[in-house]
C-alpha cells in the first residue's frame, strides 16, 4: 500500500468560539492510498497547520508505505525541525499521525484500541469541564467535574475563585471528583495559598496554575502543595514531557493527542509515565482520538468531555450515565462525508 495524497481542510463547527480555538483550530487530515482506503486524523493550527500538511508533510509522504508510522513520524519531525519542535508544526504532524493510525486499523480491519492491545467496548468513566458553577448544575451525570477558572483567574479575584470552588463542591455533592483549571494564570504564591484554602473541598488536582515554561515554579509547587498538580495540555512531543516526568513536576500528565504529536507520541508518554509511577489523563479524552489509548493503556482510565463545537465529527460515541466506550469499528471508527463538511472561510 502506498500513499497517493495527503489533504487538509478546516471544517466549521456549530457555535465554534470566536477566538484562537477557531482561527487556529482543529483541522481534518485525510490520507489517501492506492488500496482505496482513506485514513482520517485531526490536528490543529488552522490555516497555518493546513499549509504545513499540504506542503512539507505531503511532499515527504507521497509514494511512501503508511504502515511505517514510527519512521514517518521521525522524518516529519526532522523535516519541520527548523520551524517546528513545538506549536503549529507539531499540531499538523499530530493530524497526519492519527490519520496513519486510522489507516492501519482499517487495513487490518481492527479498531485502534485492539492495535494497542486493548478491548473494544471497555467502559471508561468521564468528567465534565464547566466554565461556571451554573454550568455544573446542568452538566449531566459524570464521575467528576472540572471547574475552569479561565474567566475569573486573575490574582485580584482570589476570593471569588475560592468561593466558586466551594460552590462547585456544594453543587455536585460530596461524591464526584472535583478538579480546578487555572489556565496558566496563577503564580507560585497564589497557587500555594489557594490550594491551602480549597483543600477541604476534596480537590482531585489543580490544573496548569503556571506557564508551561516555569519548570522551576512547578518544582516548588510539587513540594509545597498538598493538592496534586496537573499539566501538559500545552506541551508538545514526548521529549518535552521528559523533564516533567523525570523531575515529577506534575502528578497528572495531560497531553492532547491532537496537539502533542499524535498517538505515536501519546504512547511514548504513557510508557514513560508508567515507569515513573505518574498518571496520564489526556486532555479531551472523550474525543475518539485519545479514547482508544485510554481504553488500552490507562490503569486509571478517566476521560474529559470534548469540544462541543466539533459537530462535524460523525461517529463519536455518546456518554451514558457517566461512562463512554469505544466501538469495534476499524480504525478510529469515525465516518466523514467530505462533500458535506462545512468549511471555515
From TrEMBL:
The keyword Translocase does not apply. Keywords: Lyase, Magnesium, Metal-binding. Its EC number is 4.2.1.90. Residues 133-228 form the Mandelate racemase/muconate lactonizing enzyme C-terminal domain. SUPFAM superfamilies: Enolase C-terminal domain-like, Enolase N-terminal domain-like. SMART domains: MR_MLE. GO terms for biological process: amino acid catabolic process; carbohydrate catabolic process. This is L-rhamnonate dehydratase. It comes from Gimesia algae. The lineage of its organism: Bacteria, Pseudomonadati, Planctomycetota, Planctomycetia, Planctomycetales. The gene is rhmD_2.
Amino acid at each position: 500500500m502506498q500513499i497517493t495524497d495527503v489533504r487538509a481542510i478546516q471544517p466549521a463547527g456549530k457555535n465554534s468560539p470566536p477566538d484562537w480555538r477557531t482561527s487556529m483550530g482543529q483541522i481534518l487530515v485525510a490520507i489517501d492510498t492506492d488500496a482505496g482506503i482513506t485514513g482520517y486524523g485531526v490536528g490543529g493550527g488552522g490555516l497555518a497547520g493546513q499549509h504545513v500538511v499540504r506542503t512539507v508533510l505531503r511532499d515527504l509522504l507521497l509514494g511512501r508505505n503508511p504502515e511505517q508510522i514510527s519512521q514517518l513520524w521521525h522524518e516529519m519531525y526532522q523535516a519541520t525541525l527548523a520551524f517546528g519542535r513545538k506549536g503549529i508544526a507539531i499540531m499538523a504532524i499530530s493530524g497526519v499521525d492519527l490519520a496513519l493510525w486510522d489507516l492501519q486499523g482499517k487495513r487490518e480491519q481492527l479498531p485502534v484500541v485492539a492495535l494497542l492491545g486493548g478491548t473494544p467496548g471497555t467502559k471508561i468513566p468521564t468528567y465534565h469541564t464547566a466554565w461556571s458553577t451554573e454550568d455544573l448544575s446542568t452538566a449531566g451525570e459524570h464521575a467528576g467535574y472540572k471547574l475552569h477558572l479561565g474567566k475569573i483567574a486573575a490574582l485580584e479575584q482570589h476570593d471569588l475563585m475560592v468561593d466558586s470552588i466551594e460552590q462547585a463542591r456544594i453543587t455536585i455533592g460530596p461524591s464526584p471528583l472535583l478538579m480546578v483549571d487555572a489556565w496558566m494564570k496563577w503564580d507560585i504564591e497564589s497557587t500555594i495559598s489557594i490550594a491551602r484554602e480549597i483543600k477541604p473541598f476534596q480537590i482531585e488536582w489543580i490544573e496548569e496554575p503556571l506557564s508551561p515554561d516555569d519548570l522551576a515554579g512547578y518544582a516548588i509547587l510539587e513540594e509545597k502543595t498538598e493538592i496534586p498538580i496537573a499539566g501538559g495540555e500545552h506541551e508538545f512531543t514526548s521529549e518535552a514531557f521528559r523533564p516533567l516526568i523525570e523531575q515529577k513536576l506534575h502528578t497528572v500528565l495531560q497531553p492532547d493527542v491532537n496537539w502533542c504529536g499524535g498517538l505515536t507520541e501519546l504512547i511514548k508518554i504513557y510508557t514513560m509515565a508508567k515507569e515513573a509511577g505518574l498518571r496520564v489523563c489526556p486532555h479531551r479524552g472523550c474525543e475518539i482520538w485519545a479514547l482508544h489509548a485510554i481504553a488500552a493503556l490507562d490503569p486509571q482510565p478517566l476521560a474529559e468531555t470534548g469540544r462541543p463545537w466539533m459537530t462535524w465529527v460523525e461517529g463519536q460515541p455518546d456518554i451514558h450515565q457517566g461512562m463512554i466506550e469505544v466501538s469495534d469499528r476499524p480504525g478510529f471508527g469515525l465516518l466523514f462525508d467530505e462533500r458535506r463538511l462545512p468549511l471555515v472561510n
